[in-house]
Design brief:
Blueprint: H1 6-39, H2 54-58, E1 67-69, H3 70-73, E2 77-82, E3 85-89, E4 96-98, H4 99-102, E5 111-119, E6 127-134, E7 140-147, E8 152-158, E9 164-169, E10 183-189, E11 193-198, E12 201-207, E13 219-225, E14 234-242, H5 247-250, H6 271-284, H7 352-355, E15 393-396, E16 402-405, E17 413-415, E18 420-423, E19 426-429
Antiparallel strand pairs: 1-14, 2-3, 4-13, 5-10, 5-14, 6-7, 6-13, 7-8, 8-9, 10-11, 11-12, 15-16, 16-17, 18-19
InterPro entries: Collagen, Collagen_Structural_Proteins, ConA-like_dom_sf, TSPN-like_N
Keywords: Cell adhesion, Collagen, Extracellular matrix, Glycoprotein, Hydroxylation, Repeat, Secreted, Signal
Biased composition (Basic and acidic residues): 314-323
C-alpha cells in the first residue's frame, strides 16, 4: 500500500467538506421552501373540501382544496340526472342562512366562485343572485348577479368606507351563458382585480379598488331572484367557493362534453425523500472544478395570466352629427293648465234681427182642413123692405090679421099665422 501525500489528503478532505456543505444546505432549505409553496395560499378560515375526483383532474394542482360547497351548506337535495349530470333541487322557499353558519370563520380575501347550471326558457331573462351576502344592517357585502335581460354578469363588493364597488361585465362572449345549455361560470376575486370565466375561458378582467373584510353577523342567499327573493328556476349542478383565486383560472373543464384532458402526474414528495434522492445524486456526481460552467438550455414556460386592464384612453374628438331619427311615439296628455285671463271685448255686431233681410215670397201653401164651426155672429143691420109677391091675393086687415083669398071661396080666412107656406097644393099654417 502506498501512502497518500499531504496534497492528496487535503484534496479529499475538501471534497468531503463540500459534499457535506451541500447536504446540510439541502436539508435546511427544502422544508422551508416547501412550506412557502404549500402554505402561502392556505387560509385558516377555510376548511378542507371533499370534492369529486374530477376536480383533481380539472385543476392541475397538487394539494388539498379548501373552501365551501354551498349545496351542502344549504342542504340542497339531489334530484334527477340530466345529460349525465346530477342536478340539485332548489325548491320554492327562499334559500338563505345566517352567514356565520355558512362561513363560520369568515371568507378569505381572495377566492373563486364556481357555478355550473343551465337556464330554462322561462328564466333566461331573469335577474338573479348566484351569491348574496348581507351584513347585519342589510347592506350588501358581496354579490354575484346574472342579468338575463341585459346578458351581463355583475360583481358587487363593499369598500373600506362602506361604499359599494360595482363591476359590470358586458363582453359579448357572455351571451352564450343564456342559450339554455349547461355552462360553468367562474369568478376569480383577487385583492386588486376581478375576472370572469365562462366554460374555463377568460372573458373579461377588471381592476378593483380595495375591499373591506366580511362581517359574518348577517345573512347569505344563493340562487335567488332579485325581484321577489324566491329561488330562480334553473338546473343547478354545483355551486362552490374555493379559498384560492387561482382555481377559476386553473380549471380546465375536463368534465365538459367534448373536452379531453391529459392525466396529471401527481407528485407529493416529502422532505426526507427529497433529501435522500438529492443527496444520492449529489454524492455520485463528479467534482466540478470552479472553471466548469453549466450550459443549460432554456425551456419555454407556461403562458402567464393575462395582465391587468390598462388606463382609460384620452377623450376622443367629437363625432359627426348622426342621422335624423324616426319620430318618437306620441307623448302622454299634458297636465290641465290654469284658468286663463278674460279676453278683450269683441267688435260691435248687429243683432240677428238687424242682420236678417227680407227674402222672396214663397209658393202658396197647401189648403188647410175645414175648421170647426165659428161662434154666432152679432145681429145684422135691418135689411131693406123687399117686394112682396104672392099667387093669391093678400091683404092686411085693420086688426093686424092677414086675410087671404084664394079666389075660390067667397069667405076670407081670418087667423093669426106664424108661418105661411104657399105651394102648389095651396097653403097651410103651422
Amino acid at each position: 500500500m502506498f501512502s497518500r501525500g499531504p496534497l492528496s489528503c487535503a484534496k479529499d478532505d475538501m471534497i468531503q467538506c463540500l459534499r457535506w456543505t451541500v447536504f446540510l444546505w439541502v436539508v435546511n432549505s427544502i422544508p422551508f421552501t416547501s412550506g412557502m409553496t404549500v402554505n402561502e395560499r392556505i387560509d385558516h378560515t377555510c376548511p378542507p373540501m371533499k370534492l369529486e375526483e374530477k376536480w383533481h383532474t380539472n385543476v392541475n394542482i397538487h394539494r388539498e382544496f379548501t373552501g365551501f360547497d354551498l349545496a351542502q351548506k344549504f342542504l340542497l337535495r339531489k334530484g334527477t340526472v340530466t345529460d349525465n349530470r346530477l342536478l340539485l333541487r332548489l325548491g320554492s322557499k327562499p334559500l338563505f342562512k345566517p352567514t356565520e353558519s355558512v362561513f363560520p370563520d369568515g371568507l378569505s380575501h381572495e377566492y373563486s366562485i364556481i357555478a355550473t347550471f343551465r337556464l330554462r326558457k322561462t328564466t333566461k331573462k331573469n335577474r338573479w343572485f348566484v351569491l348574496q351576502i348581507f351584513d347585519k344592517g342589510g347592506d350588501t357585502q358581496v354579490s354575484l348577479i346574472v342579468d338575463g335581460a341585459k346578458k351581463t354578469v355583475e360583481f358587487l363588493a363593499q369598500g373600506f368606507l362602506k361604499n359599494s364597488l360595482l363591476y359590470v361585465f358586458k363582453n359579448r362572449d357572455l351571451h352564450a351563458l343564456f342559450d339554455r345549455q349547461f355552462h360553468k361560470l367562474g369568478v376569480s376575486v383577487e385583492s386588486n382585480a376581478v375576472s370572469v370565466y365562462l366554460d374555463c375561458e377568460l372573458i373579461e378582467r377588471q381592476v378593483t379598488a380595495e375591499r373591506s373584510g366580511m362581517n359574518v353577523s348577517g345573512r347569505t342567499f344563493i340562487t335567488t331572484r332579485v325581484e321577489d327573493g324566491r329561488p330562480v328556476d334553473i338546473e343547478l349542478q354545483e355551486i362552490l367557493i374555493f379559498c384560492d383565486a387561482r382555481i377559476a383560472d386553473l380549471d380546465r373543464c375536463c368534465d365538459s362534453p367534448g373536452v379531453t384532458c391529459e392525466p396529471v402526474v401527481t407528485h407529493n414528495p416529502t422532505a426526507a425523500s427529497l433529501v435522500t434522492g438529492y443527496l444520492h445524486r449529489m454524492l455520485s456526481m463528479p467534482v466540478q472544478l470552479p472553471s466548469d460552467r453549466c450550459h443549460c438550455p432554456a425551456l419555454k414556460g407556461d403562458q402567464g395570466l393575462p395582465g391587468l386592464a390598462g388606463h382609460s384612453g384620452q377623450k376622443g374628438d367629437k363625432g359627426d352629427m348622426g342621422l335624423k331619427g324616426d319620430p318618437g311615439p306620441q307623448g302622454l296628455p299634458g297636465l290641465k293648465g290654469d284658468k286663463g285671463e278674460p279676453g278683450l271685448p269683441g267688435a260691435e255686431t248687429l243683432s240677428v234681427e238687424q242682420q236678417a233681410q227680407k227674402g222672396d215670397q214663397g209658393p202658396p201653401g197647401i189648403p188647410g182642413e175645414k175648421g170647426d164651426g165659428g161662434l154666432p155672429g152679432q145681429p145684422g143691420a135691418p135689411g131693406k123692405e123687399g117686394k112682396r109677391w104672392c099667387s093669391l091675393e093678400c091683404y092686411h086687415d085693420t086688426v093686424g090679421y092677414f086675410q087671404f083669398n084664394d079666389g075660390l071661396s067667397d069667405a076670407p080666412y081670418h087667423g093669426h099665422l106664424d108661418f105661411v107656406y104657399i105651394g102648389w097644393e095651396g097653403f097651410h099654417s103651422e
